[in-house]
Amino acid sequence: MSMTAEPIVEAVGLTVDFASAKGPIRAVSGVDLSLKPGETLALLGESGSGKSVSLRALMRLHPSSAKIGGSVRVDGRDVLAMSARELSAYRGKIVSMIFQDPGLAFDPVYRIGDQIAEAVMRHERVSRAEARKRALELFERVRIPSPERRLDNYPHEMSGGMRQRAMIALALACRPKVLLADEPTTALDATVQIQVLLLLRELQREFGLAIVFVTHDVGVAVEIADRIAVMYAGRIVESGPCADVIRNAAHPYTRGLLSSRSHGALGKDERLKAIPGSPPDLAAPPPGCAFGPRCESFAEVCGSAMPDNVVVSSSHIARCVRLAIRNSSQPGG
Predict the structure, then answer these.
(1) Residues 208, 88 share a domain
(2) Is residue 32 domain-shared with residue 165, that is, in the same domain?
(3) Cα 233 to the chain's mean position, in Å?
(4) Paired sense of beta strands 9-18 and 67-74, if any
(5) Where are the alpha helices (DSSP H) in the chain?
(6) Are residues 117 and 165 both part of a single domain?
(7) Are residues 165 and 105 in the same domain?
(8) Structure confidence by residue, pLDDT tens digits, 16-70
(9) Assigned domain for 166 exists
């Protein structure tokens, strides 16, 4: 990880609102993100917690009907103020994205090599032959077997793991500074998943990439991340260095995610411990702490006050009312 003081990605007070029949829905609420070159931040949480919505906001991929608020600066540029032309130059060249489903990245009626070459030619003044050479080099770099032949494959002619590698090649085609990965290993079997994670770490070291990695899998977050931000109901409820968050989880939701994780084969009478209840309806969120209705430590104060961030230790914070009360009652608190 780079020790560069200046972050390459900095979002402050990020909000994303969508229109619905029930009225406006705030899918992301007051999210702060900071990422340095060469660093990996994992956004961890259940489906519907706002992880992917936050990620897409960094690239302005939401429909025009969505309202994005707060501040988003990437490589010193104000993303929310960019024109359509500026966004076209920004996407792929400064920030690129790996989708969970490679079908979102590739057009099924064109050869994959042609699509990667087209992306290169869109951002750089190179010939088609030079762009295809770049695509071949990338296929070799992500270890696709018989790379020259595979360039002429259509997406359906590749296995899931190979398409995922091809999508990584596409994402790196224009040498971006920031890589956004939206659950890129979820649909892969365990062996291929490990291979893709190792590949991403290797490519990060080689290219100096900053990576934001969305996942619901604690094990994947531990494997890939320098820092973890745990999201629930559109907010970051805990964040800090990976080791601190995993070893000293301070928020009840984070502890629930950790306890629901399988560490190996289960015995005959063993069961995974699930977090009770379901995530809240964002069209009508509960008052106070959104996790309150599912929290085993719920107290009356949790239902009336929106938690503020509480310092757990250096660079480690959590948003919990009971934690704030406990800290304030300690000597020196």
Answers:
(1) yes
(2) no
(3) 15
(4) antiparallel
(5) 51-57, 84-90, 112-123, 128-141, 147-150, 160-172, 190-207, 218-224, 242-247, 252-259, 321-329
(6) yes
(7) yes
(8) 999 988 888 999 999 999 999 999 999 999 999 999 999 999 999 999 999 999 9
(9) yes
